[in-house]
Task: inverse folding
């Protein structure tokens, strides 16, 4: 299968890429910083030499870059699975976070997934098959301290995911919303939080891979995962 993953250079996205590569699937990856993306692709190619791994850096908060990336994908492959994972977290309060924060968070965490999905959907629709994963968050489900615009963007991404699921249920295309609690990635490095207190990126990747292993007539609509001891 051909797997498209955004935000694949590190963290959860890298773990998802590695899991699919380990199972022999071809990868089409993107993230913002080309140097980091190149290093991740080199590491994956070395470990999985038989798998096709292609990449193009793009700032997915910009629609023009989403357009370039989606065109490149369609020129190179027929997407079977799309993982909308690229995102970033800025803590803040609605009352005093910096002006423009909402737009920044929406452009990266929501609009990237919206535009990329719309661009790749015609190919999946013509195949009458496909699976789209949207990496939402526990912040899509509940308000929390310092959620601010991040939480607003993740609620919106879950709304996008649920509407997409409804639209595509009779088209052979599965949609899964993934809502993880805290996962130890760059976002947590330097926070002082014990990595053993929260989840590993691989935990999320394993659940996503498992959701792709069902019969064509079954779909996992939501994956909600938390650290065993609960949210921080
Ligand atoms: P991470 O380690 O910081 O990785 C984020 C990835 O997204 C990087 O590859 C990054 O590329 C890419 N990215 C960010 N902004 C981008 C942009 N404008 N255009 C293209 N790529 C961009 O983060 P993570 O913790 O793995 O998070 C991955 C996803 O999981 C995010 O959507 C996040 O909200 C969600 N999530 C994380 C947690 C958690 O606790 N870690 C919990 C729930 C949900 P660059 O580094 O080049 O910018």
Result:
């Amino acid at each position: 299968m051909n797997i498209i993953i955004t935000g694949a250079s590190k963290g959860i996205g890298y773990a998802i890429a590695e899991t699919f590569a380990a199972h022999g699937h071809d990868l089409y990856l993107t993230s913002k910083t080309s140097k980091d993306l190149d290093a991740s692709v080199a590491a994956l190619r070395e470990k999985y030499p038989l798998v096709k791994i292609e990449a193009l850096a793009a700032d997915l908060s910009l629609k023009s870059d989403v357009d370039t990336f989606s065109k490149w994908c369609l020129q190179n492959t027929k997407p079977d699975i799309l993982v909308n994972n690229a995102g970033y977290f800025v803590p803040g309060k609605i009352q005093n976070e910096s002006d423009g924060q909402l737009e920044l968070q929406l452009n990266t965490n929501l609009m990237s997934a919206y535009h990329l999905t719309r661009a790749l959907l015609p190919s999946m629709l013509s195949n009458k098959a496909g699976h789209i994963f949207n990496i939402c968050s526990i912040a899509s489900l509940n308000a929390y301290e310092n959620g601010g615009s991040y939480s607003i963007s993740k609620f919106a991404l879950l709304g996008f995911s649920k509407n997409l699921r409804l639209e595509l249920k009779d088209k052979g295309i599965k949609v899964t919303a993934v809502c993880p609690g805290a996962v130890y990635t760059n976002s947590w490095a330097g926070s002082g939080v014990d990595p053993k207190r929260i989840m590993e990126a691989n935990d999320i990747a394993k659940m996503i891979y498992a959701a792709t292993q069902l019969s064509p007539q079954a779909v996992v609509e939501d994956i909600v995962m938390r650290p065993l001891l609960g949210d921080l």
User: Anything to note?
Assistant: Strands lie at 2-6, 26-30, 53-55, 81-84, 130-135, 173-180, 183-184, 199-200, 222-225.
